[in-house]
Amino acid sequence: MLRRFALLSSLSLLASCAVNLPANEPAAEDPPAAPREFRAAWVASVANIDWPSRSNLTVEQQQAEIVLMLDQAKALNLNAIVLQVRPAADALYPSTLEPWSEYLTGRQGKAPEPFYDPLKMWIEQAHLRGIELHAWLNPYRARHPSARSALAVNHIANTDPSVVKRYGDMLWMDPAEPAAVKRTLDVVTDLVRRYDVDGIHIDDYFYPYPVPAGNGTELEFPDQPAWQRYLSAKGQSARADWRREQVNRLIEQMYSAIHQEKAWVRLGISPFGLGRAERRSAGITGFSQYDKLYADAELWLSKGWLDYLAPQLYWPIDQEPQAFPVLLETWARENTQSRHLWPGLFTSRIDSSPKSWQAEEIARQIALTRQHAGAGGHIHFSMIALLQDRRGIATLLKAGPYANAALVPATPWLGARVPDAPELSLQPADNSNAAERVLIRTADDPSINRFSIWKRYGSKWVFAVQAASQTELTLEADPTLGKPDAVVVSCVNRLGMESARTTLQLLP
């Protein structure tokens, strides 16, 4: 039932046109539980896919794009952004470990002028809108084919060239070299320590995707020095198993390092959407990340070395060898530790090409995800498709699946403490044209970062999410529903744990 606090005095009651019901006098029907769904979009910086849209933008233009993207995310009722901050052993934020990314300023190692901290701005602006910000890193890639400027003097390929290998048209930090692993862990720890991120996120690039060598063969990844050291130390594993173990150790250490710094920061991993061949459902075929990328995502799930898995299910529902609903069920079956399962959707496949998907494909995939008890959200690749409203995808989502706001699902295995309920008080309008305001007071609890808000219009409840930094709620009349007659507010902390509710009844 709803939590009610003490009655206002008669004088303030008349002045404010509000009444708090005594605990023994039930209100009209309580609102339902707050809707929960992770709704996110990747914002890719590599090759200027999403942000910044070009590497030669002014600082003012970069900042305008940040605001534009976050305003669109808020308008669509998204509740998280996954921002790529380390595309290739570089940084889209000031770092003593790695150089500034050329995707930000056009030249690796060059800071923005006039100076600002892009990641800090992304975080502050996202949190102002009640949106989570997850920092996305590639753990091993050292140079992408789209790079044009020279490597900065402090790039790892220059400071420790023995751990960086050329493979095809990329540079790659060798996952079996301790110095490369340490660099990635140091970067993660530095990010979590210095920035108010809600999550750390890594994608599907572990060992690189195979490079063809001709005649149906593939180039061998050049990790021979580390492999020979392993054999000299009497190692017994096959080379493929040894490579997988390098990645496994990174994932385990990363999970531990993040939570040693801040217990509430979640680790998310977005692997290629097809798992181990012998564990696939009947009829599923295709590339094996287990055998080619040496990524044992099933093991990470079974060990609980992550807080959410976002397998890239980038195939349509009716493509039988990689059918979306079958793959979703496969990953749910592997999720024995009940971690969050939020599949990645190929929303950018909606484009102007003849092979473009229809917007309805993404809407149907969201509907199938909602119908699966083991899944609690999804992530769009990428934000640009939603920003451009390609083939009406943003319009379709806003009118349908995203018509109402939603809280991010709770993560109780990282902390189950529930915050205290808020106190509410009504402030009368200053003049006849102004709207009344509800003031929200909370306990001195820095973990509270959102308010879950219900407004009642007669028999209809309308839900909203508001950043905890905004402690006022304006009671403007809805053009269709009129003025609200009750407000219900609860506090939500960094892990999505929700307080008891506080109700404020309003007189007409």
pLDDT average, as an integer?
93
- The percent of residues in helical segments reads 25-40%
Specify the biggest β-sheet: 9 strands, parallel
Biggest sheet: strand arrangement? 13-12-11-8-4-3-2-15-14
CATH class identity of the largest domain: Alpha Beta
* Known CATH architecture of the largest domain: Alpha-Beta Barrel
Provide the CATH topology of the largest domain: TIM Barrel
Explain what you see.
This protein has 508 residues and is an alpha/beta fold. It has two domains: 118 residues, Immunoglobulins (Immunoglobulin-like, Sandwich); 372 residues, Glycosidases (TIM Barrel), CATH 3.20.20. It is built from 14 helices and 22 strands. The chain starts with 9 loop residues before the first helix and ends with a strand.
